[in-house]
Amino acid sequence: MNTIIKKRWVRLIQHAPHTTKALRTHEGFCYLGLLCDLYMQDHDDINWYWWPMDQCFRVGPCGAATSLPRDIQRWAGLDCEDPVVAGHSIVDHNDILLTPPSLMAKLIEEHL
After folding, report:
1. Cα separation of 9 and 49, whole Å?
2. I need a labelling partner for 74 at 20 to 30 A (CA). Which of 8, 17, 34, 90 fits?
3. How far is CA 61 from CA 35, 48, 69, 110, in A?
4. The most confident of 14-18, 37-41, 47-51, by mean pLDDT
5. Residue 102: C-alpha distances to residues 64, 68, 77 (Å)
6. What is the pLDDT averaged over residues 8-32?
7. What would the DSSP string read from start to end of the chain?
8. Which range of residues forms the domain containing residue 48?
9. What is the number of domains present in the chain?
10. pTM: predicted TM-score of the whole model, two decimal places
């Protein structure tokens, strides 16, 4: 993973007030959603779009709601839409294991 982006992402995770199971909802972001939001801070070619039926935001007008789009994967230097960290995907850490932000930040620092 790109080391500069990883540092920014880890900092953001450490200060995230709330995580959700979708990339972004009105309540907050999941861990991958925070990475998507970092991308959007650096690029004006893509935005969040609200999908009322799903009650979540998606990346771009036809984009994903729960995984990283390819442009964001390439930008971050990742080779898949849901990287594995310490034996579990980031989505599993977020949705199933409920890994706290402080531990998630540490795992990303050490394993990506």
Report:
1. 21
2. 17
3. 18, 8, 12, 34
4. 37-41
5. 26, 21, 22
6. 81
7. --HHHHHHHHHHHHT-S---SSSB-SS-B-HHHHHHHHHHHH-SS--EEEETTTTEEEESTT--SSS--HHHHHHHT-SSSS-EETTEEHHHHHHTS---HHHHHHHHHHH-
8. 3-111
9. 1
10. 0.85
pLDDT digits (tens, 9 = 90+) for 55-95: 666 676 556 666 788 888 999 999 999 999 999 999 899 98
- The pLDDT of residue 17 is 65
- Pull the structure tokens for residue 86: 């310490």
pLDDT in tens, 4-19: 999 999 999 998 766 6
Bridge-based pairing state of the strands 48-51 and 56-59: antiparallel
Q: Which of 92, 36, 25, 91 shows the shortest CA–CA distance to 60?
A: 36
Say how many residues make up the chain: 112
